[in-house]
Write a structure and sequence with these properties.
- The complex is a heterotrimer of chains A (282), B (348) and C (268).
- Chain A is an all-alpha fold and 282 residues long.
- Chain A contains 14 helices and 2 strands; from the N terminus they run ααββαααααααααααα.
- Chain A has one domain: MetI-like fold, CATH 1.10.3720.10.
- A two-stranded antiparallel sheet of chain A has the order 1-2.
- In chain A, strand 1 and strand 2 form a beta hairpin.
- In chain A, helix 13 packs antiparallel against helix 14.
- Chain B has 2 domains: 173 residues, Periplasmic binding protein-like II (D-Maltodextrin-Binding Protein, domain 2, 3-Layer(aba) Sandwich), CATH 3.40.190.10; 146 residues, Periplasmic binding protein-like II (D-Maltodextrin-Binding Protein, domain 2, 3-Layer(aba) Sandwich).
- Chain B is globular and about 60 Å long.
- With 348 residues, chain B is α/β, with parallel strands linked by helices.
- Chain B is 38% helix and 17% strand.
- Chain B starts with a helix and ends with a helix.
- In chain B, the strands form 2 sheets. In chain B, strands 4, 5, 6, 7, 8, 9, 10 and 11 form an 8-stranded mixed beta sheet that branches.
- With 268 residues, chain C is mainly alpha-helical.
- Chain C has a domain of 170 residues: MetI-like fold, CATH 1.10.3720.10.
- In chain C, 76% of the residues lie in helices and 0% in strands.
- In chain C, helix 3 packs across helix 10.
- Chain C is globular, with a radius of gyration of 22 Å.
- Chain C starts with 6 loop residues before the first helix and ends with a helix.
- Chains in contact: A-B, A-C, B-C.
- At the A-C interface, helix 1, helix 2, helix 4, helix 5 and helix 6 of A face helix 1, helix 3, helix 4, helix 5 and helix 6 of C.
- Chain B: One of its GO terms (molecular function) is polyamine binding.
- Chain B: It comes from Paenibacillus anaericanus.
Amino acid sequence: MKKSNLSVLPVILWLCLFLVVPMLIVVGISFMGRDDLGNVVLDFNLESYSRFFDPLYLGIYWDTIVLSVLTTGLCLLLSYPLAYYIANAGPKMQTWGLVLITIPFWINFLIRTYAWVLLLRTQGVVNNVLLDFGLIQEPLQMLYTKGAVLLGMVYTFIPFMVLPLYVALDQMDKKLLEAASDLGASRWKSFWHITLPQTKSGIMTGSVLVYVSTTGMFVVTDILGGSKSSMISNIIQSQFLGARNWPFGSALSVIFVITSLIMIALFNRALTSKHMKTKEGR
Amino acid sequence: MKKMRWAGLMLAVMMVLTLLSGCGSSKETLNIYSWADNFDEEVLKEFEKQFDVKINYDVFANNEDLLAKIKAGGNGYDLIQPSDYMVATMIKQDLLEPLNKDNIPNWTNISDTYKNPSFDPDNKYSLVYMSGVTGIAYNTKYVKEEISSWADLWNPEYKGKVILLDDNREMIGMALKKAGLSNSTTDEAQITAAVDDLKTLLPSVLAFDTDNIKQKMIQEEGWIATVWSGDASVIAQNNPDVAFVIPKEGGTIWSDNYAIPKGSKHKELAEKFINYMLDPEVSAKNYESIGYSDPNTKATPFHTEEYNNDKMINLSEEELSRTEWLGDVGEMLQVYDRFWTELKSGRE
Amino acid sequence: MKSKNHPLLGIHSLIMMVFIYVPIAFIIAYSFNSSRLAADWSGFTFDWYISLFGNRHVMEALSNSLIIAVVSTLVSTVLGTISALAIRKLGKKMKVGFGGLLYLPIIIPDIIMGLSLLVLFNQFQMPLGKITIIIAHITFSMSYVHVVITTRLIGMGNQLEEAASDLGAGAWQTFRYVTLPQIFPGIIAGALIAFTLSLDDFMVSFFVSGPSSTTLPIYIYGQVKRGISPEINALCTILILVSVTLIFLAQFMLNRGKGQKKQSVLPF
């Protein structure tokens, strides 16, 4: 007990120094004022917080949440079978699978996203293929749409979903599944009652990582969405840069961090209670 | 097994050594902070050789990043390249060192058009590096009418094919110019009217983009766009169908400049560098390679004919006379920002 | 061992791999395109590869990025593993607090993290450079590693560890022979995420970098204004080829002549 508390000390020290202290500075700035040059001045007020309730910013935050939930859902649906496949492949294939999925993401994010621009543009490959096969008569406008943004987001965050899912699936007790099939349970039933509950920690971690990363990502909206819609992180960034309003940017960040923590807690609870129910049902 | 552990240890030691190396160079260094590929590489190497110094060249992506970084204490740079309005802001915030012109005798080579600009009246803190004017680029394959006014962007025939710069002040400034007003007005009613006008343009907009507008016009995704003159030249070289015009209402002129940030440890060397870059021959070689307008009047004979004849690089006196710098709008920046967020939120 | 995968799963996985690799194939193809800006194919060339090796700025940025990624991955993997193991033994309240704290670096917007760390380093008079970037990367990567390993630990329980210590195994022995092998896939996954994040981070690195510590993402973002050079495509192509080869070699070396595969994956 004592020993393990000691071993965690460096981590706590590290986080206090490089995370808690800077965060406290941000919280402090969020209550301050500014002069016309954009310098932060000592003048306690809540103006930056009340400004968030402008329907414009609330609306943008709502859009951000909707897009992030959609991205997380799609990522989960696409990644679960893939992670399942990898976890059940031979040991050599497992390492290969993981690495092959991760390597493309060592390529710079901008370069990867521009590659999607080349694919999706009106005279791009996807349109040309569709035209050649006669599936469409006119090139589709795929770029600079909400769909393109969603596609880019899902693509960007796939490894954040696959890796945690793999970690959970790999450890699943396969004897349970065998027992279930011996008892005549259908594949679907045993998946629903055994596999899914056993891998909920992976679902939880993957979903949180993807959800949080999506809310914080805006370059995809700029490049694939043509900057025609904004994410909350666009606004935060522009308050620190173009608009030179650090207090408002800090207040937005504080609100953002707190709401994200609440979302994570809610999601965690929902997942746990669902698991409880299935357990009782058996 | 043991061997593996040793290999790991060796690897760690090697890493620490590589981390520490890099710090030991005895030559004087010039730390440049600018956009990537902003200079001709050979010109930089020649400077290193001539003055027996080392150049460290680090990069930022836009003016706002630069300001936030310098303001929050990011230092160690000797020469930075902020744009016009950013020079004004940095002077106000006391972030720049005055230039010692005695070390930069070549500064007199700069064309009068770019001397003593409104953002730095006596060139006390900055000297122009390159400049351009925002105008309209359009693809003559699709745009058959003669383009002469900002109002032509509103033509319903180009619906879904208009690209605007992803820049708050530039675009609201454009709508203000269209209405015959100053691009830097601080009159809220004028700004509101301009923004309402821009809202009627929104359904026509394919995308907002500053950095990749070149590619979008070359690839003919957009038919008509607000584009900087230097970029227009690049587009026209890659797609000869694209033409460029400075609308009759006039456009916004911008420049990137040399400036020395407070706290520079090699100020004199930075000044020597600016002077070197303003040497007519060096200047010609540099701008030939980066393809923007050369403000150095003595460099013209060293340029190729092709460069001197490029109308998009070398704008006429008449075109330049219709331009206006973006001025600092003070606290009104918050109003501009709120409107811009609204325009781009994709709501309503 | 017989594979338990349904053929439909195989097809889905194949499609996903194609989805992941199609843009990569494009990047590789365009590294041989002779035009700098045009999207259309304008002729095959090796020029970008040749000029890449002559471009000292790219090379410096690449070596900075690699050093930072390797060091920050190593340190954050160790710290993240320690914290994931330690959090299990904390009281309920401490667990929630500490867990929340570890989620923070994942949630905090990049720009906040970058700017606040810059202000902090400035207060400490710490010269900006590779070291400050490494510190920043460790701070966020550690959380990802922690979260992924925790995923593993939740499903594991501590019966095995308890049994081991009941049988008289010391703390180190229990860790080495019971805990570590069980959480190893989590460590690998966490390290992969940490490495990927570090290699790709722009915003945080930008603010805490100093003279001559430009990383590859900072360089590439700086290039956007003039148009990203196909040299970068060439570089990405080489990076992919080198990583695949290295991993293949490592696998080959580890598996050669060893019967027990799971064991040989561990380096000690």
